[in-house]
Amino acid sequence: PGCFGYPLSIFFIIINEFCERFSYYGMRAVLVLYFKYFLQWDDNLSTAIYHTFVALCYLTPILGAIIADSWLGKFKTIVSLSIVYTIGQAVMSVSSINDLTDQNRDGSPDNIPVHIALSMIGLILIALGTGGIKPCVSAFGGDQFEDDQEKQRSRFFSIFYLSINAGSLLSTIITPILRAQECGIHSKQRCYPLAFGVPAALMAVSLVVFIVGSGMYKKVQPQGNIMVQVSKCIGFAIKNRFRHRSKEFPKREHWLDWASEKYDKRLIAQTKMVLKVLFLYIPLPMFWALFDQQGSRWTLQATTMDGNFGAIQIQPDQMQTVNPILIIIMVPVVDAVVYPLIKKCKINFTPLRKITVGMFLASLAFVAAALVQVQIDKTLPVFPTAENSQIKIINLGTDNATIKFESDLQPVNVMSMESTGYMTFETSQLKSLHITSGNKTKTEPIKLSGGQRHTLGVKNNKTDIIVKWLLDNVTSKPEEGNNLIRFINNFPDPVNITMGDTSFETLMSLSDSDYKLFPGGRKDKIMVIRNSMNCSVTSKVFGYGSAYTIIINECSGETLKVAYSEDISPNTVHMAWQIPQYFILTCAEVVFSVTGLEFSYSQAPSNMKAVLQAGWLLTVAVGNIIVLIVAGASKLSEQWAEYVLFAALLLAVCIIFAVMAYFYTYVDPNEIEAQLDEEEKNQVKKDLNFNENQAEADSRM
Q: Is the Cytoplasm keyword given for this protein (predicted)?
């Protein structure tokens, strides 16, 4: 049965791939935030585990290929590993249900180790599944075509690549939206079970679709694994060379020729070609080390940025969608426009040059990321060290006030109802302060514990200057674009305050509430009940990631008057500033990744494709391991410096690769194959002649 000249079975395979990629990329998109906010790991541990997982996903394909070629065949391998995969996704989803261990129902899991254990089991199963299937699905698709359908086959691989990107695009948009929902049985929090559950469901769909098509597939019997043969051949050559290391044995042209006692000429010639390409792969992992940080470091960078795009609010993990969107646009544009233009300019843009340019662009992307990081760092608050204290003054009275710390410091003037920013002092230097407001003065001793932020409330209430010390117990910028808000009651009597749906405790006169969390980017109604009278006002629109103290001043009629004091400034660097780095990195991917595989296939015989694909995936795995090593060993406290370090490393590797590429000579495997065929024919003729002559000689005797 066929359709548009394609075997019908192809459509099942493409739908299967789409669902599988949706499932994988969706889960991967929210993974680093799940580690950070749900398992409560810090940035570095989250990044480390994320890259360990990705590395595993790219190591297991070698296993999958060997199982498929030597033992189960592609069809059975895909089915059995898909089952493992689906179970892994389901376990992942269960591990993120916080009501599983949340006995006291406060909205955060009580027994974190249970969740960690479950999610690690889930991730290991997923790595086995996705990796094991990866080499089989595309090859199984290729098997469906007859030998005379070369054109359809190559078209199939393009559609296949497109379905991968469509799957990853949709899931990187949808999964973060699911994550941002509120859900839960007893208490509401971010909906990770849904964000992991939908990929699990799609994986199940993918499996069912694949099995339904079962009757139509052409199933090729396992032929034995070429990787195993190649490794044995190399191993034997090395062993044999080592045995004959003394001077009396003649040298051979290439060290692989030492395998000729046991292996035929053809396998040796093919292995030489493969090794030549694999040698060029050695510098490539550095590219993947940078590329795969989109899902870890860049996503964490986005959490400290402002995601307000007017009508829509972008989640940090959604910024990754810029990559698949651009890929879908750029691959056709580069093929149809950019390469022909370069050709017109009489530049010979060889595959190896393309790969070199790809590396250079990726290191540029990291320079861009570092520049953005420097801008972000300017907006991040600086908290006091252990020896210092930070003080901010709020004037709650109607007269202006002047406050003088220690004799040698400048006096600080604060207008009525205004506040200063935080000022940093050495705690040991702060002994007393002197306040002048209206016609009154007051001197107070100071006793502060170091390493903290304090707010000093000053109020001249016509009889005395009241001095109120408040401890500001915010020690970090609010995560995920939330805001922290607290109130100071500037009425003479107690009040009850609600803001939006959140009510604060009853506040005595001139005391402060605790900070409470509010979602970013919106305004809420502030309502105050005082002596059973209520008055209200709508707050200003708060940004993302800020902390404010709101001073409740007076009620005129039903309208409340409030003043705002900013404790931590909101995220002001816009997420759109990440687009340039994503754009440059996507350009790098287009010239690097697409070219890399095509080049490998063009430089080695067709039966060796599996070995090269394994080598290519191995470079991705090693790249992710490099991130672990560099990020672990560098001990750089500044994130921008780490980006610059990666950019510099890749630039160095890029130069090394350019030199290697310069000395590389391109080969045509078909020519070499033809030569081998020719030699074999001649050999057969010689043998025949030899045998005839032998026979003649025998008959004469």
A: no
Cα–Cα distance between 276 and 423 in angstroms, integer? Answer: 63
Q: How many CB atoms lie within 10 A of CB 529?
A: 16
Determine the 3-state secondary structure of 266 from DSSP: helix
Those residues with Cβ within 8 angstroms of residue 311's Cβ, 6 or more apart along the chain or in another chain: none
In this structure, which amino acid lies at residue 165?
A: N
Across residues 115-128, what is the average pLDDT? 95
Residue 416 CA neighbour count, 13 Å, CB half:
9
Give buried/exposed letters for 255-283 (b at 16+ CB in 10 A, else e). Answer: ebbbbeeebeebbbbbbbbbbebbebbeb
d(CA 136, CA 142): 10
Q: Which of 195-204, 259-268, 467-476, 566-575 has the lowest mean pLDDT?
A: 259-268
- Residue 43 tokens read as 């940035």
For tokens 């998109």, the residue is 29
Residues making up the chain, counted from first to last: 701
Residues 356, 411: one domain?
no
**What's the CA gap between 430 and 433, in Å, rounded?**
8
Residue 501 has pLDDT above 70, yes or no: yes
Q: Mean pLDDT over all residues of the chain?
A: 86
Whether 476 and 542 map to the same domain: the answer is yes
| Statement to judge: residues 544 and 637 lie in one domain | no
Q: Are residues 316 and 355 in the same domain?
A: yes
Residue 304 resides in a domain? yes
Are 404 and 414 contacting, i.e. CB atoms less than 8 angstroms apart? no
554, 422: one domain: yes
> Do residue 40 and residue 24 come from a single domain?
yes
Could you tell me if 427 and 448 lie in one domain? yes
CB-based contacts of 183-190 (< 8 A; 24+ apart in sequence):
184/98, 184/99, 184/107, 185/99, 186/99, 186/102, 186/105, 186/107, 187/98, 187/102, 187/105, 187/106, 187/107, 188/107, 189/98, 189/107, 189/108, 190/37, 190/38
Please name the residues in contact with 30: beta carbons below 8 A apart, sequence gap of 6 or more.
175, 176, 179, 192, 195, 196, 317
Query: Does residue 73 sit in the same domain as residue 147?
Result: yes
Residue 560: Cβ-neighbour burial (10 angstroms; 0-12, 13-18, 19+): buried
446 close to 432: Cβ distance less than 8 angstroms: yes
Question: Residue 641: which domain range?
Answer: 282-379+574-683
Which run of H or E residues covers position 233? helix 226-243
Query: Does 688 fall in a domain?
Result: no
Can you read off the two tokens belonging to residue 262?
Answer: 């046991």
pTM of the model: 0.82
Higher pLDDT pick, 632 / 413: 413
Instruction: Indicate whether 1 pLDDT > 60.
Output: no
Identify whether 43 is part of a domain: yes
For residues 309 and 301, what is the distance between their CA atoms, to the nearest angstrom?
Answer: 17
Total of domains in the chain: 3
Q: Establish if 402 belongs to a structural domain.
A: yes
Structure-block tokens of residue 186: 């007893």
Question: Nearest Cα to 470, choosing from 396, 542, 414?
Answer: 396
Beta bridge partners of 442: 435
What Rg value do the Cα atoms of the chain yield, rounded?
Answer: 34
Inter-residue contact 455 to 394 (CB < 8 Å)? yes
pLDDT per position as a tens digit, 7-61: 888 888 888 889 899 999 999 999 999 999 899 898 889 999 999 999 999 999 8
Supply the pLDDT for residue 660: 93
Q: Measure the CA–CA gap between 608 and 600, rounded to whole angstroms.
A: 10
Task: Convert the pLDDT of each residue in 206-228 to its tens digit.
Answer: 898 889 888 888 888 877 777 77
Helix (H, G, I), strand (E, B) or coil at 444: strand
The two beta strands, 432-437 and 401-405, are antiparallel
Q: At what angle do helices 112-143 and 74-95 cross, to 10 degrees?
A: 160
CATH of the domain at 43: 1.20.1250.20
- CA 582, CA 326: separation in Å to the nearest integer? 9
Instruction: Name the burial class of residue 76, with classes exposed (0-12), middle (13-18) and buried (19+) by CB atoms within 10 angstroms of its CB.
Output: middle
